[in-house]
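Appendix B. Chain record.
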Amino acid sequence: LTPLLPHIDHRNRGMRTRLGCLSHKSDSYNDFTAILPDKPNRALKRLSTEEATRWADSFDVLLSHKYGLAAFRAFLKTEFSEENLEFWLACEDFKKTRSAAKLASKAQRIFEEFIDVQAPREVNIDFQTRELTRRNMQEPSLSCFDQAQGKVHSLMEKDSYPRFLRSKIYADLLSQTQRRLS
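Structure tokens predicted for this chain:
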């Protein structure tokens, strides 16, 4: 019985850590160094209010901007749904694959990580899309994830993106860029 106690204690500690993370879930970032890539302080100084405001023009404008993408990713993490963006980005990278040898292995990795039932970072897609993607995997091509990627893009655009634009993360970021101007 004694050898089991450290194991039980370890599991409880892990659970406490996970619960602690949940209780600290926040929609606010006062320190944007956590969300901005490479040299964050300099990055935030270079981000103009005009650029950050333009992210509200369209979802694709947000996705095409390095810091917009980072801020959106940070927001999705607060909602525990960053797998959608990670899948979309993996598909974008996959479409740039030029080596036929790498195509099948990259496709398999994406499928196992995001599409397969019970995948570690399973995205929320309908049964028909999942099955079509499974069939596409029999002969992977650069377009084998197009339908699934489109569904995830649409889901983020209609659901997460409007919430991001109303979020404290986005409001705080805009306010920080405006404060620099004063």
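Further analysis of this model is presented in Appendix C.
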